[in-house]
Design a protein that fits this description.
By secondary structure, the chain is an alpha/beta fold. It has a single domain, classed as Vaccinia Virus protein VP39 (Rossmann fold, 3-Layer(aba) Sandwich), CATH 3.40.50. Helices cover about 35% and strands about 20% of the residues. Strands 3-2-1-4-5-7-6-9-8 form a nine-stranded mixed beta sheet, sandwiched between helices. Strand 4, helix 6 and strand 5 (about 170-175) form a beta-alpha-beta unit. The structure holds S-adenosylmethionine. S-adenosylmethionine (SAM) binds near residues 35, 69, 70, 92 and 121.
């Protein structure tokens, strides 16, 4: 007897499995200005739940939190005693963006002791300074969504890799985006320099703005994380996967159909 085909979750029904995060995704996420997709936020926070279940602890970091849309979801996914650092120039589109960021965090239940707001330029930041800000604790998730140039992403990737916990993951925004084709060059050059790192999963886009994210991890963690992501998000796995020659990884998508061949 053939198995029933699982129905893919939609952006509205996908869950992280953390009640505080899922409540925010349902009732707050779309009200906070930002660019990351709800689909990606649910899966990244689902990955933080998986980390907690596996005993992987530590803070989180976002480069480019803007008004806090994705940052708040990360903060709500933390467990006891963990914090999230938001690094931003906070000068775009105007200097008041930092006040809106703080107000959004407070409104959606991110306690002041849970968050560290850091008005700084990630391009000139040294790993020692970021680690000091984190109280010496290495982050388990870093979301890179700052300046979208090849040089800046290269710098942000090196900064993230230098501070990342052994079981940490790096999430990259705006991958495969038609407006930022050189970001892919930076990623492939990075993977060439860091043979211990690999792409764990691709989180497909919702729209051009709510673009694709890549999730990177150390190769020794790939199988454990992949198995857990499959358990949680089987219905949203695009069947053919992604070919990084020779490494293959999961593609999680709202659209799991293949081309029809007659
Ligand atoms: C596309 S927005 C981020 C959106 C947000 N992460 C979300 O998901 O809604 C990019 C942010 O990166 C910040 N940024 C750009 N260059 C930066 C740099 N060199 N250092 C720190 N932040 C930077 C910008 O100020 C802006 O707030």
């Amino acid at each position: 007897m053939s198995q029933p085909v699982p129905v893919p979750h939609t952006s509205a029904t996908i869950r992280s499995g953390i009640p505080a995060v899922d409540g925010y995704l349902d009732a707050g996420y779309a009200t906070v200005p930002g660019m990351s997709s709800r689909f990606a936020a649910a899966i990244c926070c689902g990955l933080m739940r998986i980390q907690s279940e596996l005993g992987v602890a530590g803070p989180a970091v976002e480069v480019g939190p803007f008004e806090g849309r994705f940052f708040i979801a990360l903060a709500l996914a933390l467990t006891h005693g963990e914090t999230v650092v938001g690094i931003d120039l906070f000068d775009w589109p105007n200097p008041e963006v930092i006040d809106r960021f703080e107000a959004n965090c407070s409104k959606h239940g991110v306690l002041a002791e849970r968050r560290i707001t850091w008005k700084a330029d990630s391009r000139t930041m040294q790993p020692e300074a970021l680690l000091a800000k984190l109280g010496g604790r290495r982050p388990r998730l870093i979301h890179i969504d700052g300046e979208h140039s090849r040089a800046a992403l290269t710098k942000d990737l090196e900064l993230a890799t230098a501070v990342l916990a052994p079981a940490g993951v790096i999430v990259l925004d705006d991958m495969l985006h038609p407006g930022y084709p050189t970001l892919m060059v930076a990623v492939h050059e990075y993977l060439g320099r860091h043979s211990d790192m690999c792409v764990l999963a691709i989180i497909d886009r919702e729209t051009v703005v709510a673009a694709t994210k890549f999730v990177l991890c150390r190769s020794e963690w790939f199988k454990r994380y992949e198995a857990k992501l499959l358990e949680s998000y089987q219905a949203n796995v695009w069947p053919l996967g992604a070919d990084f020659e020779p490494h293959w990884c999961l593609v999680l998508s709202l659209d799991t159909k293949l081309a029809e061949i007659t």
